[in-house]
Amino acid sequence: MNDQYKTIEEPTEEVLFKDKGSKFYGYAFPIQSEEDAKERLEQIKSLHSSARHHCYAWQLGYHKDKIQYRANDDGEPSNTAGAPIHGQILSFDLTDVFIVVVRYFGGVKLGVGGLINAYRTTAQMTLEKATIVEKTIDIHFKLQFEYKHINEVMRVIKEKNLNILDQKMHLSCEIIIGIRQSKAEDIKAAFAHLYEVKIENTED
Question: What is the pTM (predicted TM-score) of this model?
Fold first, then answer.
């Protein structure tokens, strides 16, 4: 099971591409939702309020059946801006990323081919500036048990090098652990012999 994906670590520095007087400013951001993309777009629109075009593309999700994406030409001829930008997201094999390219018209029309090249190149330059990181898809499990079983539970957590995300230790205990998706079934099996420990998936 492929439980790894690539994204960018932090927002990129501004890049600039010029062609026949037109200026193209590129930015990339890591995002977790479409709402994040909308907020970032508003920031860029505010920064470049006099620009005519704020073209963008974003992608979310890790598997072919769960991937979401959007590309927007923002007034440029159809498929000359958003699609080339999204193409670079695919070319770099990234997800959870938002790229916006701002254009200031320089007085000379670039034509369809020129626009596609300009937006593609700006997006490429932007991602070349990015710090690309590989992350794992994690599943969260909730462990529920009586305090008398704490040593047994903690022994498994230590042996399997599990990441504790949250814990509540009273007479009844609750621990949230994060597990790589590909190891989830193995970890469930490791707790299976502890009959008085309840383990379940959680959306937390």
Answer: 0.76
